[in-house]
Specification:
Elements: E1 2-4, E2 44-46, E3 60-63, E4 65-70, E5 75-76, E6 82-87, E7 93-103, E8 106-115, E9 134-139, E10 146-152, E11 167-172, H1 181-185, E12 200-204, E13 207-211, E14 228-235, E15 242-249, E16 261-262, E17 268-269
Length: 273
């Protein structure tokens, strides 16, 4: 069975709890879920996803993924870890759903878009200029112990972004040796090369950590999930500085798990390097 996840849906679990996300039809948009405003955070299960490629009427198409960032690395057994993915929506289309398949040690992610117009899809879709990369959460499903290669299952054409770098999701026993949730999210770095699970090495309040270059909650007009709050992030690649707002872990009773520091702004961040 494929898990069909409406976009802009955040997590059903917070940094203070487990990494898994159970299906929900809750209409409570308060803490811990940061749900999609239009549907209250409903997760829809479908028995079969559409075949790869456009639908016959072209109202649904697949969307090549530009990059993959693992939200929790590692993740515990029995959980449902998420991947944050960046993608450019085709002109005239908006996000519809994301799916994942687990085959031979791989988690194969897929984004699906739908036509936004009321009428038929035009034979020739007019250009819409530069399309920004948007960021979404896609469930990897429940993963068993071991390592999983996380890839995009959608073919990339010559005019698409290059295929994303494959990431490796490590799944460890859920025991006392497993790092605390905040440590699995707030991964410290010195350079982009340290971000092997995806993202960029961003500067946040004097610390450096691997973050998705577009925050999937705040960029889609949502709220940060429970256990996190917004902070200013900055990344300075060769092309120049980029700044954005990102959800980062918050201190609990002015404390953080060992390995993170509770700063003056109330965030749990890696120690300055």
């Amino acid at each position: 069975m494929t898990l069909r996840t409406p976009f802009a849906l955040a997590l059903c679990a917070s940094l203070a709890g487990c990494d898994g996300c159970r299906s929900t039809t809750s209409r409570d948009a308060s803490v811990g879920a940061a749900p999609r405003p239009s549907d209250g955070g409903t997760i829809v299960r479908v028995t079969e996803a559409a075949p790869l490629g456009p639908s016959p009427d072209r109202r649904e198409v697949d969307v090549p993924i530009a990059w993959i960032h693992l939200l929790s690395e590692p993740a515990p057994t029995g959980s449902t870890p998420y991947a944050i993915v960046g993608a450019r929506m085709p002109c005239g289309y908006g996000p519809n759903y994301g799916t994942s398949e687990r085959v031979n040690g791989e988690v194969r992610l897929r984004l699906r878009a739908q036509w936004l117009g009321a009428g038929p899809v035009p034979e020739t879709i007019p250009p819409c200029g530069d399309r920004p990369v948007r960021s979404f959460l896609v469930s990897q499903g429940i993963l068993r112990l071991g390592t999983w290669r996380v890839v995009d299952m959608v073919p990339h054409g010559p005019n698409d972004d290059p295929p994303p770098v494959a990431r490796v999701q490590h799944v460890l026993p859920d025991d006392a040796n497993l790092p605390a949730p905040a440590l699995r999210w707030m991964r410290g770095c010195a350079t982009d090369d340290d971000c092997t699970a995806g993202g960029v090495c961003a500067s946040v309040e004097g610390a450096r950590l691997c973050l998705a270059a577009v925050d999937p909650w705040l960029s889609e007009h949502g709220n940060c999930p429970e256990g996190t709050s917004p902070a200013d992030a900055q990344h300075t690649p060769d092309a120049g500085a980029a700044t954005w707002r990102a959800c980062v872990a918050t201190c609990q009773h002015n404390t953080c798990p060992a390995g993170l520091v509770c700063n003056a702004q109330g965030h749990c961040l890696p120690p300055p390097r």
